[in-house]
Amino acid sequence: MYSSQLLKGTYQTIILKLLSEHDRMYGYEISQKVKELSKGDIQLPEGSLYPILHKMQEEGLVQMERVSIGKRVRRYYSITRAGHQSSKEKLQEFENFVRTMRLLLSPKTSMS
C-alpha cells in the first residue's frame, strides 16, 4: 500500500482513465476496480473519492446520472468530451513525470 500523500495527486488521473474505459461507473464500483487492478496496493476511500468526483463534475470532466434501483438511488458517473481530453493530457503528464523520476532516482552508473 502506498502513502496517501504519494497518491493524492494521481486519483483524478486514475478515475478519468477508468471512466474512459467504461461506459459509466458508480462510486463503489470505481473504488473496487482500483483496488482490483492494483492488487490492493491502491485503495480509493469514499471520503476521498466523492469529493474528487464532485469537483470533476463541477469542472465538466464527468457527468452524473441518478438511477433508481429498487428503493435505492445509485449515482453513475461517465466521462465527458472534456474529460477525455483531460485524461489524455493527464496520462501524458504522468508518463513524463514517471520518466523524470526514474532519471532522478536511478542509481548513478558512472562517476562524474
UniProtKB/TrEMBL annotation:
It comes from the Bacteria. Coiled coil: none annotated. Pfam families: PadR. Residues 15-87 form the Transcription regulator PadR N-terminal domain. This is PadR family transcriptional regulator. It comes from Splendidivirga corallicola.
